[in-house]
Prior knowledge:
The structure holds two protein chains of two kinds. In chain A, the strands form two sheets. In chain A, strands 2, 4, 5, 6, 9, 10 and 11 form a seven-stranded mixed β-sheet that branches. In chain A, strands 1-3-8-7 form a four-stranded antiparallel β-sheet, with no helix packed on it. The N and C termini of chain A lie far apart (35 Å). Chain A has strands at 4-7, 10-13, 19-25, 32-37, 43-49, 56-57, 64-66, 76-78, 87-95, 100-103, 107-111. By secondary structure, chain A is an all-beta fold. By secondary structure, chain B is mainly beta. In chain B, strands 2, 4, 5, 9, 10 and 11 form a six-stranded mixed β-sheet that branches. A five-stranded antiparallel β-sheet of chain B has the order 1-3-8-7-6, with no helix packed on it. In chain B, a hairpin with a 6-residue loop joins strand 4 (32-38) and strand 5 (45-51). The termini of chain B are far apart. At the A-B interface, strand 9 and strand 10 of A face strand 4 and strand 5 of B.
Amino acid sequence: DGGITQSPKYLFRKEGQNVTLSCEQNLNHDAMYWYRQDPGQGLRLIYYSQIVNDFQKGDIAEGYSVSREKKESFPLTVTSAQKNPTAFYLCASWVPDRNTIYFGEGSWLTVV
Amino acid sequence: GENVEQHPSTLSVQEGDSAVIKCTYSDSASNYFPWYKQELGKGPQLIIDIRSNVGEKKDQRIAVTLNKTAKHFSLHITETQPEDSAVYFCAASSNTGNQFYFGTGTSLTVIP
């Protein structure tokens, strides 16, 4: 079954901890994205990657880090430097033949 | 860069009535305009899209119109049903860089 898989669905983090959100796709897509969504708000781009071993900062990259060691994987680390990390995080990948992006089901991160 | 504005932020309609959501964009290079539906706690799902070489596209009860001159596009939902209740996002993209710019979302409530 193909698609974009995000895990975990729910994650709780203590202040001062780093956490990593997983995003895997078996669609052979080149470009992948991470967005942050706050309650009642739109989507803000954190990082994106066009190809393996390359990634670019989005509008709100501070306090986050990513890696793209494999085409199918684009994990996002929320570091302790991110002052307000509680949000819904969405991973997406780009479909070249339609020039559009598809989203995963999202991960809820809550700081406790 | 591109700026996408979306209105209204909330919309309530009676079941069976029509709903219209409008977006404007600023970059004349944008040529692809997808619409996403997001249900609570889930990732956005692509419901319809339009490219700049057409003015209108329809898929059953949903349609999208595009006015390139005025740089605005709209989503039309006819014969609304309670299951249409969700948050809807518009987006704009160009062929360069696979960048997508999202509106701030419209929360649609269909009242039975």
